[in-house]
Amino acid sequence: MPTTAKICGLSTPATLYAAVAGGASHVGFVFFAPSPRNLSRDLAAHLAARVPGHVARVGVFVDPDDALIDAVIDAGRLDALQLHDTSPARAAAIRAKTGREIWAAVAVRTRADLDGAASFAGAADRILYDAKTPPGAALPGGMGVRFDWSLLDGFHHPLPWALSGGLDPLNVGAAIARTGAALVDVSSGVESAPGVKDVTKIAAFLGAVKSA
Q1: pLDDT of 24-63, one tens digit each?
Q2: What one-character DSSP code corresponds to residue 4?
Q3: HSE (side-chain half, CA atoms, 13 Å) at 156
Q4: pLDDT classification of 148: cutoffs 50, 70, 90
Q5: Is the pTM of the predicted complex or chain greater than 0.70?
Q6: Which is it for strands 196-197 and 191-193: parallel, antiparallel or unpaired?
Q7: What residues act catalytically?
Q8: The domain 4-211 is classified under which CATH number: 3.20.20.140, 3.80.10.10, 3.40.50.10240, 3.20.20.70?
Q9: Pick from 5, 110, 151, 160: CA 20 to 30 A from residue 53's CA?
């Protein structure tokens, strides 16, 4: 199966169109106020209405409460919820409440960090391996930090998984070749400034994924 890609943190129709036109399998909408990619409910609805049916819409959250999920899940027409800094028990509760596919982000810096993936078996549908951000960082992801892909060598994945963290048009081919990732996820790697997606970089990233 060819590798597919999620373009995350989209906030304008032009960049959304670039992602769809370039062949992204998933588009990501961020609902986390400290993030420069945070969307209002109305903007999420405006963008979601422009996503064709063959592209999945993923809402990105950081340990969200029910009120936030309830406010945006239908407006954003969310097919999946990507959860950062969220316990397995909370992920399972959100999965049961919403009936949506759940992606659990596991922050990785060392091989031992991968062990956290197993705790989401039965609570999530997919693991997103992301780079662990520096201590005190305001955001759990989207900062262009990558981890050592060799940490995944020989690892037994408890669930379907995706690779994230510091990917860009220049390194995503090597990342796919090294890890065998079936799905890759990019945010800051296709931006010209924090939160500002670049249509040229989106096209280049998706082209590199297709060529991998």
Answers
A1: 999 999 999 999 999 999 999 999 999 999 999 999 999 9
A2: E
A3: 3
A4: very high
A5: yes
A6: antiparallel
A7: 8, 130
A8: 3.20.20.70
A9: 160
